[in-house]
Amino acid sequence: MAATDDRRPKYQRIADSLREAIQSGEYGPGDRLPGENDLMTTHGVARMTARQALGVLRDEGIAEARKGAGVYVRAFRPIRRHGIQRLARDQWGNGRSIWSADIESRALEVDRITVSEETAPDRVSAVLNLADGEVTCVRRRRFVLDGKPVLLATSYLPMPLVAGSAITQEETGPGGTYARLAELGYEPAHFREEVRSRMPSKDEMTQLSMATGTPVILICRTAFTDRGRPVEVNEMTLDAASYVLEYDFDANPKTMPPNVPDPS
Amino acid sequence: MAATDDRRPKYQRIADSLREAIQSGEYGPGDRLPGENDLMTTHGVARMTARQALGVLRDEGIAEARKGAGVYVRAFRPIRRHGIQRLARDQWGNGRSIWSADIESRALEVDRITVSEETAPDRVSAVLNLADGEVTCVRRRRFVLDGKPVLLATSYLPMPLVAGSAITQEETGPGGTYARLAELGYEPAHFREEVRSRMPSKDEMTQLSMATGTPVILICRTAFTDRGRPVEVNEMTLDAASYVLEYDFDANPKTMPPNVPDPS
């Protein structure tokens, strides 16, 4: 440590040294970190200082407290979500759910689903080019991995397109929503995904059973037909501690995306 | 609000009502929120309760304190970063920097740059298929928008590939690193971007002048030649309050990405 760092408060110095030990692999994912008592002894500090040091790592999302058991290095074993391969037509075209490739042999399940008719929020209506008051089919799903909720997805489809189809049912059948859209003559051909990140609201934290100090990733995915008609907007909220998004693409894509309005 | 919500503590109820007012547009981006005194009067609560309520919105990244001036709705005027179009060869092939499309008429500038020879971290060496101890050219840059740092980028290139070229200089010349790689016979043809989000470290917060309650987005981009050889790994750290990432792609991409090792 450089001499200029000596102005750091004690708890910060302890936090920094623990962080370095984690980054160097001295403490691996899931390992228990030294407790307050250990830190008090090792560094000759008061309990509050030790607590603050561990608090820094919790706030950064590097460590997590387990009730009555201490503070542990957070295990980052993410779901790898393939933005592009995942949506390749030959994947959903033959009856597989688009989500099956998300998890690479880990079981992602829907544990909550509601389907309703609603007026979409303005930002969604704008992207879907809806007339004033035009109603959408709204599919809200929560996805769980190993009992832990990891993803909230709210999908909006123009009601005139999907009325009477299985898309308005909880069970959409083999291949899911996109296979049904194809049967209805609105086969998705282009996708746009917009990705943001922010801290979760209290409601999102509750729904995703999130630890403190963890952001959410927001993905707004729009599906377009080959004529550039937007047919679905899917607003997804992901527990950032559970996901890596992957996008693979060529330097010179053969096709450009349709010219579409900007939702943000 | 439903009766079941009445168990919420007072500060939480105030925070929830302010959040709803923001989401409904009653307070827009950059607007000043009611101060502690206002909330004390309106809701008949103690100063500490009012302060906690505003603290909730700050922690969620919805609001930000300005010294001596109160608490404001955070303005989210993001840079739109086009993952795919941005890297299209016809963009960097004719001398434009790949970053120029990031900002859509707003001026993103490099305000810090260092170039050095270093042994890359193990995760990077693994992706680049480097032999033990093989050295990389490391280009570290900080990008600033309107005086605010928004992006840290650290690029690793195998030294044997780039030694003696302008890539080892601060100024890489027209078209940047990718144009030089093409001249060297290592033209990037495929890209993989992996996207994560987490809370920033103290050092990242400082380097990006970040507000409390804001996560960073991490992008690890790997560039491959058309023969699948990895030629660059670029680890980027973005202030999440400043960015929307956009990826546009087709349902049935013509080419699949090369089969490459997994860096995470």
From TrEMBL, chains A, B:
Lineage, opening ranks: Bacteria, Bacillati, Actinomycetota, Actinomycetes, Kitasatosporales
Look up and give the organism this protein is from.
Streptomyces griseoloalbus
Q: What is this protein called?
A: GntR family transcriptional regulator
Domain HTH gntR-type per the UniProt entry, residue ranges: 8-76
List, in alphabetical order, the Gene Ontology terms for molecular function in this entry: DNA binding; DNA-binding transcription factor activity
SUPFAM superfamilies from the entry? Chorismate lyase-like (SSF64288), Winged helix' DNA-binding domain (SSF46785)
Q: What GO terms in the biological process aspect are recorded for it?
A: negative regulation of DNA-templated transcription
Write out the entry's keywords from A to Z: DNA-binding, Transcription, Transcription regulation
PROSITE patterns referenced in this protein's UniProt entry, alphabetically: HTH_GNTR
The record ties this protein, via PANTHER family, to:
GNTR-FAMILY TRANSCRIPTIONAL REGULATOR, MANNOSYL-D-GLYCERATE TRANSPORT/METABOLISM SYSTEM REPRESSOR MNGR-RELATED
- Signal peptide from the UniProt entry: none
